């Protein structure tokens, strides 16, 4: 059960990274982010999602 929840969390991170909805990426804690910072956040979300999924798959 724990591994299924972790994989779902990884999928959510990947969805957030590649989603067309960018509102969450443009404002982080009240700071407006544009351009390069939005790309950096997308890369970090994607990397985190992939890392979580690979960690669980490697554990089984």
Number of strands: 2
Largest sheet: 2 strands, antiparallel
Number of helices: 3
How large, in whole angstroms, is the Cα Rg?
13 Å
3D architecture notes:
The structure is a single chain. 75% of the residues lie in helices and 7% in strands. The mean pLDDT is 76. A two-stranded antiparallel ribbon has the order 1-2. By secondary structure, it is mainly α. The two termini are 12 Å apart. The chain has helices spanning 2-18, 23-26, 36-59, and strands at 27-28, 31-32. The radius of gyration is 13 Å and the shape is elongated. A hairpin with a 2-residue loop joins β1 (27-28) and β2 (31-32). α1 runs antiparallel to α3. The chain contains 3 helices and 2 strands, in the order ααββα.
Describe, in short, the structure shown.
With 60 residues, the protein is mainly alpha-helical.
Tags for this entry?
60 residues; two-stranded antiparallel sheet; mainly alpha
